[in-house]
Amino acid sequence: MNNNIKAFTLIEISIVLIIIGIILSSVMKGRDLIKSSQIKEYNQVFISEWETIANSYFSRMNVNFGDSVNHGGKATQTEIDGFSDGQAVPTTTSTMTIALQSAGIDPCNLVKTDITVASGVDLGCGDAGVNPYNKTIDGEHIGKKTTTIMFTHYTIDNKKKNVLLFSNIPADVAQSLDTIRDGMPDGQKGNVRGIVTVPTNAGDTFTSVAWDGDSTSSYNMIVILEH
C-alpha cells in the first residue's frame, strides 16, 4: 500500500467548489452583460432611430409619416388623392423610402441594420443595398429573429394614436425594451404595448398583453408616437 497518496481534505474540496462557482458566476454575468448590451444597441439604432425619423418627418412636413399617399402611406376610403386624416396607414417600403428621402430624411444611412436585400431588389437604398426596415435580435429562449418596422395607427385607450409597430420581437427582448423605455415590463401601460396578433385593419381596437419573459413566443410591440 502506498502511504504517499494523500486524499483531498474537505477544506480543499470546498475551496475548489468555491472557485468553480466564482468562474460560473462570472461567465453568467458576462453573458448577461452581452445580452443587455445587444438589447440596448437594438433600442438605440433601430427603435429610437425610427422614432426620431417619425418625429423629424412631422417637424419638417407638419404631417404624420404614412398619412396619405403623398406622405408614404396608401390611399384608403378616407385618404384619396393625398387627403390627410392625421392617421398613418403605411404601404410598401420602397414608397416609404421615397417619401422620407423627399423630405431630406434617408433611412438607408440613418438606420444601422445587419439586413441587406438580394441583388435586383431595391427598397430605395440602391440595388442589393441595406434594408432599414428589418433588423435581427437574439432571444434567450427563441433564438435569432428578424424584426420588422411599420407605421400605422390603432385605437388605444379609446383614442386613435399613431404608432411604430415592431413585429416578431422575442418575448424576453420585448420585456427588456419595455423596461428600458417605460421603466415597467408590463406590456400593457405606458408608451410601449404588446400585441400577440396584429389587428386586421389599422385603427382597430386591440387588447394589450403582458410579456412572458420565459416564453418561446415572439410578440408584436408598438411604440406610441406623441403626434
User: What is Rg?
Assistant: 24 Å
Give the topology string: H per helix, E per strand.
HHHEEEHEE
Label the structural class.
alpha+beta
Would you tell me the overall average pLDDT?
Answer: 86
**What does the overall shape look like?**
elongated
Uncertain stretches of 5 or more adjacent residues: none
Beta-strand content estimate: 15-25%
Q: Could you give the order of strands across the largest sheet? A: 1-2-3-5-4
- Total of helices: 4
Chain oligomer state: single chain
The helical percent reads 25-40%
- Main sheet overview: 5 strands, antiparallel
- Number of DSSP strands? 5
How far apart lie the N and C ends? 86 Å
Number of separate domains: 1
Structure keywords:
alpha+beta; single chain; 227 residues; 4 helices
Structure description:
The chain has helices at residues 10-61, 93-102, 107-110, 171-182; strands spanning 134-139, 143-156, 159-170, 192-195, 218-224. It has one domain (12-224). The protein is α+β, with helices and mostly antiparallel strands. The protein has four helices and five strands; from the N terminus they run αααβββαββ. The chain has a five-stranded antiparallel β-sheet with strand order 1-2-3-5-4, covered by helices on one side. The mean pLDDT is 86.
Topology:
Elements: H1 10-61, H2 93-102, H3 107-110, E1 134-139, E2 143-156, E3 159-170, H4 171-182, E4 192-195, E5 218-224
Antiparallel strand pairs: 1-2, 2-3, 3-5, 4-5
